[in-house]
From TrEMBL:
Coiled-coil region(s): none
InterPro entries found in the cross-reference section: EF-hand-dom_pair, EF_Hand_1_Ca_BS, EF_hand_dom
Descriptive protein name: Calcium binding protein
Keywords assigned by UniProt, alphabetized: Plasmid
PANTHER family xref list: IP16409P, RETICULOCALBIN
PROSITE patterns with a match to the protein in the record: EF_HAND_1 (PS00018), EF_HAND_2 (PS50222)
Domain EF-hand residues, every copy: 143-178
Single GO molecular function: calcium ion binding
């Protein structure tokens, strides 16, 4: 049976693991590199994702725009900043813990982006991501490409040489929700102990 001290230590370690991942996410979202998040940063992120969509694919472009806007609105609602305000790293951590990773907001923001991204990346429509399609995502989203091969192998759970929609969704859940620092999904945007 766990003692109170052990439970407290486990809770602290769980928070540390999530904060390490959210720290990497913050750095990636901070497109202006000024140490703060703004609506402009979220629009820039939406633009990066939208650039992956083929010409004329308004459905997925709109899905990216809407999901990133909802994410920004969650930050505004939970922090009390103005629409044109700035969100600090600590404020971002707090909203990620209490707002974005709650079931409904998570589906409306994170998973909406994932679903549109999977549709966009799966260029041949076979329902899975090849390594080439996955590497294309890394390149386009500004994630260091040297990590894409290792990440692909970790996320390809069944070792069949592709990442299914289910494997991709599982990776997303692990990145945002898991407190296991060894979960394969932590590699979603590269090693989470290295800057984005």
């Amino acid at each position: 049976m766990s003692t109170a001290a052990e439970k407290k230590r486990e809770a602290r370690m769980s928070t540390e693991v999530k904060h390490r991942k959210f720290n990497k996410l913050f750095d990636w979202f901070d497109q202006s590199h000024d140490g703060l998040l703004t609506r402009a940063d979220f629009r820039a992120m939406s633009g990066l994702f939208s650039a992956l969509a083929p010409e004329g694919d308004q459905e997925n472009v709109s899905a990216f725009e809407e999901a990133f806007d909802k994410w920004w609105q969650l930050l505004v609602a939970h922090t009390g900043v103005q629409e044109d305000g700035e969100v600090t790293r600590q404020e971002f951590f707090g909203v990620m813990e209490t707002g974005v990773t709650s079931p409904e907001p998570f589906e409306d923001t994170v998973m909406a982006i994932v679903n549109a991204l999977m549709r966009t990346l799966d260029t041949n429509g076979d329902g899975v991501l090849s390594q080439d399609e996955y590497v294309r995502m890394y390149d386009a989203l500004g994630i260091p490409p040297e990590h894409s091969g290792a990440a692909f192998r970790l996320l390809d759970r069944d070792g069949d040489g592709s990442i299914s929609h289910e494997e991709f969704r599982l990776a997303i859940h692990e990145f945002y929700l898991s407190t296991d620092e060894n979960a394969p999904g932590n590699w979603l945007i590269g090693p989470f102990d290295q800057p984005a």
